[in-house]
C-alpha cells in the first residue's frame, strides 16, 4: 500500500460514521439496531415504537412550565418601569 493510499484510507476512516458510545441520554433498540434519545421521542423508538428501558424521561423544566406566564410577568415589569418613567418625567422634568 502506497503512502497516498494509506492517507486516503485514513481520511475515509475519519469520515465513516462511528457507532454511538452508549450515553445516559441514549437508548438502544435491539430490533432496529438504532440509537435514539428518548427525551425527544416520548420514550419510544422512532422506528418501531418499542418503549425505551427507562421509559419517557421527565421533560426539562422550561417545557413543563407554562411559558406564557413569563411573558405576562415581563409585561407587568415593563409596565411598572414605564409608570416609573412617566412619574419621574411628570414630577422632575
Ligand atoms: Zn425500534
In short, what is this structure?
With 93 residues, the protein is mainly alpha-helical. The chain is 45% helix and 6% strand.
Overview of the structural elements:
The protein has helices at 3-15, 61-64, 68-92; strands at 27-29, 34-36. It is mainly alpha-helical and 93 residues long. The model has no long low-confidence stretch (mean pLDDT 84). Helices cover 45% and strands 6% of the residues. It has 2 domains: 18-57, no CATH class; 59-93. The chain starts with a helix and ends with a helix. It is built from 3 helices and 2 strands; from the N terminus they run H-E-E-H-H. The radius of gyration is 27 Å and the shape is elongated. The protein has a two-stranded antiparallel ribbon with strand order 1-2. Zinc ion (ZN) binds at residues 29, 31-32, 34, 45, 47-48, 50.
Amino acid at each position: 500500500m502506497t503512502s497516498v493510499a494509506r492517507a486516503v484510507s485514513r481520511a475515509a476512516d475519519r469520515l465513516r460514521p462511528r457507532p454511538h458510545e452508549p450515553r445516559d441520554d441514549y437508548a438502544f433498540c435491539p430490533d432496529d439496531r438504532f440509537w435514539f434519545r428518548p427525551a425527544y421521542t416520548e420514550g419510544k423508538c422512532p422506528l418501531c415504537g418499542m418503549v425505551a428501558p427507562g421509559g419517557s424521561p421527565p421533560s426539562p423544566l422550561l417545557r413543563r412550565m407554562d411559558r406564557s406566564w413569563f411573558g405576562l410577568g415581563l409585561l407587568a415589569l415593563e409596565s411598572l418601569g414605564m409608570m416609573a418613567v412617566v412619574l419621574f418625567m411628570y414630577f422632575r422634568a
